[in-house]
Amino acid sequence: MSNDWKTNYHRWVSFAALDTEMKDHLKSIQKDEGALEDCFYKGIEFGTGGMRGEMGPGINRINVYTVRKASEGLARYMSELGTEAKESGVVIIYDTRHKSREFAFEAAKVLGKHGIRVYVFDILCPTPLLSFAVRQLGASAGIVITASHNPPEYNGYKVYGPDGAQITLATAQQLMAKIDEVDDELLVSCEDVSVLKKKGLLKMVGTELMEVYLEQIKNLRVLSNRFSSAADPIRIVFTPLHGTTLKAITQGLNSFGYRYVTVVPEQANPDPDFSAVASPNPEEHQAFELSIQYAKEVDADLIMGTAPDGDRLGAAVKMQDGEFEKTKEFSFQFGYEESNGYLLGDFVRDKNVVQAALIMADVCAFHKARGKTVYDALLELFETYGFHEEGLHSLTFKGKEGIHKIGNIMTLFRSRPLMEVAGKKVIAIEDYLAGTRKDMQTGAVVPLALPTSNVIKVHMEADSWFCVRPSGTEPKLKIYFGVKGDSMKDGQQMLALLKQFVLSYIETA
């Protein structure tokens, strides 16, 4: 495959069998050289998180041809593992986005062409069910077609290993090598679905695995169900944000004994355009605007919203003034990530929103039985450990020029290391690309025992810090902030000053 965008473009437009939609799209932008270059100047990247990007024509977009190419690479990788891996097969699920179901079957058709058994879900189901199904069916791999919480124009392709977890860096590198061997994504061959079914290479999977999955979650309950059936039971507002979790979570809440559950009707049905929500990202407050309206009407104790693919949970609880505040951290011991992904138990090996939602309901019920809210419990933690405030700010830089801009910003932090930030001395700077931590007072440099990544973290005195990294799934630079104050007001003021300083510094790049 050429690195010259014009060569790649002409290869596509001269391909007689090019998909009609792709052909029409290219025709509509044929005079926009900038748009064409962005579609063809490089192949869409495939990493440990798979590939994710805008849909459309070109090698730098998610489309039927790039999906086939990724699947061809996976098929070649599995073929080298041997007959047992091919017979164990691949499980495929998909979310509610445009073309997700189509892409799922395109992947199945390519894998099936290589004699690899494929299981495709015939129902919408959340991402954690893929991890569960891979282990339950003894499959060699899993694929989920999703772009999680990204805007409607995005989609993606993520690969899981036989343990039900996202593939490791070593596996990803082997898989990427096989994908890179595919010279022309337009010429990847695939088999007809009816032929695969006749050969027994394609099996549709239904609700039976969902039932087993929900039964497993019941075993995670730390509390008895006496709180869910108390004299003053909790009232819950839930929104799947037009995604895949409606059935799993409402059915799960019911099995846990929660009867007062209001589903946001405008956001209940699958909708690839996310028509009734400003953002389908449960990390962001605007995702809860409609939920909060319903919560005030029913005097809800808890609001929960999930990412469309069902891997992340956002929660909001009533504060003392009757307003709702979004929370991220729970008082349980379990695995979690900054962007609202949580995991309990080991029968799923990835972020599990269904588990988190059901146990969060138990957390809320437990504290209500104590005469407290979840927000009260959060304040108790702050009083004990300090008033920690964290924030995230994303800067969007699209296209080829955007990549250069992000690169310039990262170079700025490396070439002009800060010694003081918002009135606080810098203690150390960690550069995960170089794999080093530098003490800014002594100049001593020590290695970091973490994987290489294009990330810089700056530590200041008084437990303050910020971290800068390019997003691996969107054309964004993400800046994370953290402070520790003596009070909530103090922490919020410190956070605001830190954000202002860092964003102003970035503007000098």
Mean pLDDT: 91
Question: What is the general shape?
Answer: globular
CATH class categorisation of the largest domain: Alpha Beta
Number of strands: 21
CATH topology of the largest domain: Alpha-D-Glucose-1,6-Bisphosphate, Chain A, domain 3
Structural class: alpha+beta
Which range does the strand content fall in?
15-25%
Q: The biggest beta sheet, please?
A: 8 strands, antiparallel
In CATH terms, the superfamily of the largest domain is Alpha-D-Glucose-1,6-Bisphosphate, subunit A, domain 3
The CATH architecture name of the largest domain reads: 3-Layer(aba) Sandwich
Radius of gyration: 24 Å
Alpha plus pi helix count: 16
Residue share in helices? 25-40%
Q: What's the N-to-C terminus distance?
A: 34 Å
Low-confidence segments, given as residue ranges, are 328-333
Tally of structural domains: 3
